[in-house]
Amino acid sequence: ALLRAANALLQQRRYHAALAVIKGFRNGAVYGAKIRAPHALVMTFLFKSGSLREKLKSIAQATYAHSRNLAYFVFTYKGLLAAQSRLQGKKIPFHSFLAACIGGWLVFGDNNPINSQIIMYLLSRILFGLARLAVEKGYIPQPKQDPFPLVAALVWGTVLWLFEYHKETLQPSLQSSMTYLYEDSEVWHDLSDFLVYNKRTDSK
């Protein structure tokens, strides 16, 4: 009977906006955990030192922070979107922008490694999206050739220049990745740390 009552409530259109906010919170939490857990697992075991307990704790903390922030953001965004739509009687594009701005400020405004990674992830996609929109709207002409090779060249050229000469400007996880690829590959002592290990242990 309780299950039937809950299912009946979920079918009520008048509660749709409120229920969408709740489900948005749920989906944000689940998606955040799914995205962060494997990423944190790989990055922690590849690049972080410490005991197994410390590594597992770091993975759990990163996963929780990503999951929580995404859940809070979706909840805030959808709640503000519904409130604006109700106040004005209809949904307009500016509602989405304003709700997301407020949610971004409240939830992702703290400058920490998790939020920083999320913002940089979004920024790259925004730049691609705005470029495509500008072409679609006719603000810039349709390229005669695929511009992606040029974009790839400029991105890699810029990031390696920053890494070589202004490393401190790059995010720590990117610094770690590039150090492994481009600096650690310059150092070896014997076959063990040339092919088997990246760095030989102190005992050697």
List keywords for this structure.
204 residues; mainly alpha; 2 domains; 0% strand; flat
Explain the overall architecture.
- It is a single chain.
- The protein has 204 residues and is mainly alpha-helical.
- The protein folds into two domains: 1-113, no CATH class; 146-189, no CATH class.
- 75% of the residues lie in helices and 0% in strands.
- The chain contains eight helices and no strands.
- It has helices at 2-10, 16-47, 52-88, 93-108, 113-136, 148-165, 172-183, 192-196.
- The longest helix has 37 residues, at 52-88.
- The radius of gyration is 23 Å and the shape is flat.
- The termini are far apart.
- The mean pLDDT is 91.
- This is PXMP4 protein.
- Pfam families: Tim17 (PF02466).
Strand coverage percent: under 5%
| Largest β sheet strand count, sense and barrel closure | none
Unreliable stretches, pLDDT < 50, 5 or more residues?
none
Structural class: mainly alpha
Helical fraction: over 70%
Q: Helix tally?
A: 8
Mean pLDDT: 91
End-to-end separation in angstroms reads 69 Å
Number of strands: 0
> What's the number of structural domains?
2
Shape: flat
Q: Which radius of gyration do the C-alpha atoms yield?
A: 23 Å
Write the H/E string, N to C. Answer: HHHHHHHH
Protein name: PXMP4 protein
InterPro entries: Pmp4
Pfam families: Tim17
Produce the secondary structure layout.
Blueprint: H1 2-10, H2 16-47, H3 52-88, H4 93-108, H5 113-136, H6 148-165, H7 172-183, H8 192-196
Helix pairs in contact: 2-3, 3-4
